């Protein structure tokens, strides 16, 4: 049976190695292969002349980065289980390469920042582009893998994207054996609404939203958070003690075709733990 791999896009940055370690652990927890991708397509026009002049060294650095990442991945996964690790040097630009990989991958993982074009970046601003345009779930990793005993946090708002985020978050919490914190934040647009009524409606919405995933993962301990607050702010508060936050690409307030909602975008630029941005299954 073909198992969808975890795919991690790398360059030679430290953030890419952090992403590789996290991706390897996630692949081991799901017992799926890990594919490490270093895409070295044509650089942006502004940097093309300088980078083409150093093409061979550029490619050599990419091969070295892949070899190091493969060693790091194998070591990170080993305490959990042995996984199949492949490392591919792809002669194409990173964004289309990883967006294409997202159509068949279980998850695409990248670091939050690359080296930057001035320093021969292979990833650059890929994390932002993938968060906006990848057809499948994307994990953006900042820093070393966090405490694996900490909870997983998920944002809940009853949208289709949120439903996918809830399913992913329950799966991640179950495999890690940790608590899941399900967060629904609400605001009173109509100030005459009673706080108690809004709180009860929020609790009902959260309970209905997590019920299918909880039925499939009854072993997962769930802490429910329903609060009057901005969603991004509340999720950031909960993320301070989390190992992973999962949100939908955009929520109930988003327009059809929107690539990234305000909550996911705010978290993308401010969160300090790994973030998965989910979309409905393709």
TrEMBL record:
Pfam family, one: Usp
InterPro entries reported in the protein's UniProt record: Rossmann-like_a/b/a_fold, Universal_stress_UspA, UspA
Gene3D superfamilies: HUPs
Domain UspA: 5-141, 151-279
Spans traversing the lipid bilayer: none
Similarity comment: family membership: Belongs to the universal stress protein A family.
Full protein name: Nucleotide-binding universal stress UspA family protein
Organism: Nocardia puris
């Amino acid at each position: 049976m073909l198992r969808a791999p975890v795919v991690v896009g790398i360059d030679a940055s430290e953030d890419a190695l952090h992403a590789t370690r996290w991706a390897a652990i996630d692949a081991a927890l799901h017992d799926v292969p890990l594919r490490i991708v270093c895409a070295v397509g044509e650089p942006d026009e502004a940097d093309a002349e300088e980078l083409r002049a150093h093409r061979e060294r550029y490619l050599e650095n990419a091969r070295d980065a892949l070899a190091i990442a493969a060693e790091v991945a194998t070591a990170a996964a080993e305490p959990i289980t042995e996984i199949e690790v492949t490392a591919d040097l792809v002669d194409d630009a990173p964004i289309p390469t990883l967006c294409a990989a997202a159509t068949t991958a279980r998850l695409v993982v990248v670091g939050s920042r690359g080296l930057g074009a001035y320093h021969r970046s292979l990833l650059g601003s890929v994390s932002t582009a993938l968060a906006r345009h990848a057809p499948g779930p994307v994990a953006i990793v900042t820093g070393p893998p966090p405490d694996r005993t900490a909870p997983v946090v998920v944002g809940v708002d009853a949208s289709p994207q949120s439903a996918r985020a809830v399913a992913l978050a329950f799966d991640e919490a179950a495999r890690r054996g940790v608590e899941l914190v399900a967060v629904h934040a609400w605001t009173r647009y109509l100030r005459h609404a009673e706080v108690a009524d809004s709180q009860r409606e929020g609790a009902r919405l959260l309970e209905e939203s997590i019920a299918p995933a909880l039925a499939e993962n009854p072993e997962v301990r769930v802490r429910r958070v329903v609060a009057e607050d901005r969603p991004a702010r509340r999720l950031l508060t909960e993320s301070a003690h989390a190992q992973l936050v999962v949100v939908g690409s955009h929520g109930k307030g988003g327009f059809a075709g929107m690539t990234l909602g305000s909550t996911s975008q705010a978290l993308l630029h401010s969160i300090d733990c790994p973030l998965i941005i989910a979309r409905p299954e393709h």
